[in-house]
Amino acid sequence: MLNRLGIPLPILQAPMAGVSTPQLAAAVSNAGGLGAIGIGATDVAGAKRMIEETRQATDHPFNVNVFTHATPQPDLETERGWLAALRPLFAQFDAEPPARLRTIYQSFNDSPDLLRLLLDTRPAVVSFHFGLPAPQVITAMREAGITLLATATNLEEARRVQDAGIDGIVAQGIEAGGHRGVFDCSAYDPQLGTFALTRLLARVMDIPVIAAGGIMDGAGIAAALALGASAAQLGTAFIDCPETDADAAYRQALHGAAAYGTRLTSAISGRPARVLENRFTHAMEAGLTGKIPAYPVAYDAGKALHAAAKVKGEYGFGAYWAGQGAPLARSRPAAELVAVLARELEAELAVFSSVFTSPAGTPRLGYGLR
């Protein structure tokens, strides 16, 4: 798949809506990886601007990621209950919670205008997170020559991805930062780790598997390839690149004690997501209870609380998404980071080759990279 797209390195930058930028995506693509922009948190006009800005900065392929979550159904009782539970936290900053919660992000499945934009602009790659669009949408995008990727967190989801005609699976392990790509939040989540999931899917799927979650350096990429992945997707590794939109508090937290204590929580947005330990996660552990509204309705409350706290100089309620490999984050320009990752990967593969190959050039004990 990467060869077909003309991408020389098995390195994908995660889309990271709200953090990734056209400048980041272009820098990664220009350096030989596959850069990405996440347009799930913007409207059609904003998405168009991001695609145009990325195209102005690179002639290479890049990935445009969309959210395909289920349309949230109005539930005023749940929303009122959740706002009441959050009221004491707002009061700490002399603020009131919103009177009503909004659906702040529209699902790609509910936006024919966004589909038209993608069919018109035809980015090289489009990826889906939180599920899949309708079959006719997938057909239209494939007929437009767009390579399609979709996130899967377990075998059942991966089978649905393959059966839908998607070109590749992003195997997202529980270590990954940001939102879990689970299709149905009410279903049982086996919470498979990246390497277990990658190996499982590589053994049974007929389409390329891209490992994602906790991978921060060349050693992690090499390990993913050894397990049968075609490439690795890194997100947290790129957060502190100067090309991202991460604010100073986010960058500081990434290199602090919070990086060693990431937490998986649904309280911030309404969907399970891995975040740097903060006052929001502490509140949940201290007994903040209540039925959480659906994604992204709950996120409206989370963003409002963060905004109220920031006014008082408190940044502990920010949605600073990060994976379990956060302590390994490096502060480098994106192109330089990709170059370092490539050198590390090459060195690790050379070690693998020397360890698993005899002096005569034959594999030892039957081992060898796929």
Global outline: globular
Total domains, how many? Answer: 2
* Amino- and carboxy-terminal Cα gap: 16 Å
Query: Which regions have little confidence, pLDDT < 50, spanning 5+ residues?
Result: 363-370
Proportion of helical residues: 25-40%
What summary fits the major beta sheet? Answer: 8 strands, parallel
Order of helix and strand elements from N to C terminus: HEHEHEHHEHEHEEHEHEHEEHHH
Q: Count of DSSP E strands?
A: 11
Strand-residue fraction?
5-15%
CATH class categorisation of the largest domain: Alpha Beta
Average pLDDT value?
94
Alpha-beta classification: alpha/beta
CATH H-level superfamily of the largest domain: Aldolase class I
Description:
- The protein folds into 2 domains: 1-71 and 107-246 and 332-370, Aldolase class I (TIM Barrel), CATH 3.20.20; 74-105 and 247-325, no CATH class.
- It has 13 helices and 11 strands.
- It has helices at 2-5, 22-30, 44-57, 76-91, 112-121, 135-143, 155-163, 194-204, 218-226, 248-254, 279-285, 297-311, 334-356; strands at residues 11-13, 35-38, 62-67, 125-129, 147-152, 168-172, 178-179, 209-212, 231-234, 263-265, 273-275.
- Strand 2 (35-38), helix 3 (44-57) and strand 3 (62-67) form a beta-alpha-beta unit.
- The chain is globular, with a radius of gyration of 21 Å.
- The model is unreliable at 363-370 (pLDDT under 50).
